[in-house]
Every structure is written in structure tokens, then in C-alpha cells.
Amino acid sequence: MNIDERLKIKIEKKLKKGSRISWIIVAAIVGILVNTLLAIVKVLIGLFSNSIAITSDAINNLSDALSSIVTIVGIIFASKSANKKHPYGYGRIEYISSLIISVLLVIVGWEFFKTSIDFIKNPKEIKFNIFSLIVLLFAIVGKIFLGSYNKKIGKKTNSPALMASSKDSYSDVLISTMTVISTLIYMIFDVLIDGYVGIFISLFIIFSGISLIDDTLNSIIGKEPEEKVVNEIYKFVKKSEKVEGAYDLILNNYGPERYIGSINVAFLDTMSLSEASLEILKLQNSVFKKFGIYLVFGIYSKNTQNENVSRDEKKIREIISKYNGIESMHAFYILYEEKLIRIDIVVDFNVKNVNELVKNIRRDISKIYIDYEIILNIDHNYV
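Above: the chain sequence. Below: its structure as C-alpha cells.
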């Protein structure tokens, strides 16, 4: 069994890690129980009092319970082993479950927005008592607990669905607080603002859902990884005494805690192929053990055979630095006898005409290095 096969087996074991799945399922079950209980109590109070604000708050809790069910289904499917059809596993299903939760929020918010408008047009008599108020206060405490619990487990497991549920729970605290305030205003001043509070609650739910949809879609489409993780990987790889530089890190996300990527490293051109290969295998193992990320390594060679290399590299850096949109230059290599120059430049995503930029840079370099073949590779900063 070669090193690649061993690493793939390690990845598979890590992705199937039971502790993470167990934590998420337990947190989701707690969410189902708490939200179902709150929904039942608030529905009873809402029906008794004719309060649209309390009833909408209750249905919001019920949608949270359904969201937790979706979370459980999502994590179970996401934990399925990789196969020929899906060689990178099913981890992105967690993003889909989070998206479903977000869409549910928008739908629920819109339905109660319409109901609240109707209540303002056709108000009903409201009946409140002190017992109902006390129950609503306890509901707020319950939601604070649930939000804190989901946030803790969400961070521990890096679960987008639980983090979404945590944000929703804290939103519910504000919603329930507004409900209590409207109840107190009616009990003390006999002023009915129930329908307006219902509108506030429904709009809050809608905008929370839209925000979560945006965040989840970015994860599905593909967004840059955390800067902290990127910097730590670069720092870790550069610790190797044989590595002269590390560049072009790309991390592809296949679900929470599921990254496969690539990175280029520079070795001295005096290093043999077998030495470079062995060092890469060591780095692959070390990176995976520390970060749980499988990286494919590419190799750059660093000139050591000619004392003029530093001078020429400086000249070319000066040429390239005159252009806007160039973030950095690396992988410089020059062969004097073969008349060949190789360079990698990192171009900002805002540069619209990359081909024109490359053409101009190659033209300016050719003015100094006449008859040289110039291999100019364009990179983007993906992280």
C-alpha cells in the first residue's frame, strides 16, 4: 500500500469520525425537544389570548424544531462513505440542510407578515394574564440556553447547520422579548400593538433567513478558507529546512472539516529527485496529521548555479512592479545557455484583461532579455 492510499484511508476515517456526528445529533435532538415544548405552550397561550404575536412566535419555534430534524437528516447523509460516484464524500449535504433551514425561515416569516397585516386591518380582542407573561419569560430563558448550547457545539464540530440554529435562537430571544413588551403595554396601558409586533417578528425572521441563505450559498459555490488556517499551513510547510518557499495554496472544500488541496514548494536545484520526493511525502503526512487536510505538492526549483541570478531576478521584479494588479512574483528561474526565463505572477481578481497584462509584461522583459523564451504563469490568490 503506497503513501497516497494510506492517506486516503486516514481521510476517510477522519471524515467518519463518530464524535462529531454524535455531538451534532444530540444538539439537534435537544433543539427539537426545547422548541417543540415552547411551540406547544405558546400556541395554547396564543389561541387563548387571540395574540397574533404569540402565535407567530410559537410557529417560529415549531419551524426551529423542523430545522433540527433537517439537521439530523443532513448529518446522517453527510456521514456516508465516499464512493465511485461521489469520491469526495457527501459532506456538502450539510450545506444543503442549512439552506433548507434558511428557506423555511423566509417562508414562515412571509406567512406571518401577511397574517399580521390582516390582524391590523381586522383586530381581535386580546386576553392576557400574569401566568401567560411568566411562561413567556421562561421561554426567553429557554431560548438563551438553546442559542448558547448550539453555538458551543457548532464551534466544537464546525457545523454550519448548528451555527445557523444558534443565530436563529438568539433572534428568537429578541422576538420573544418584543412579544412580552407588547403584552405588558396592553396589560398596563390598554394599547394594542400586537399586529405591529407581529410584523416586526416576521420581518426579522425573513431577513435572518435571507442572511443565512447568502452565507450558505457562498459555502456551496465556494468561498475562500479562513485566513488563520491558510497562514498556519504556510508557516508549517516553511518550517522544513529543505523548503525555500511555499506558494499557491488552494483548498477545495467538500463539507465542514473536509479539505483537499494543493500547494507549490521551492527546493534548491541541487536537490535530487529522490530527496525532493521523500521530503514531499513527509510534508503530506505532517500536514494531514496536524490539519486533517490532504495536500498535493508541486515543485519549483530555485537557481543556485549562477551568481547573476539574483541580479536578473531583481531586474524583472522592477519591470513587473510597474504594473497595477500584480500582487507578487515567485518561482523565478533562468537558464542562460538555453535562453529561458520562467516566472509566476499573482494577479488580482480585479484585473479585467489578464491576457493584455501578460502581453505587456512579456514585451517589456523581452526588451532586456532579447531572444529569451519567457514562460509567464498566471496565479490568483485563492485564499
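The two ends are 33 Å apart (CA to CA).
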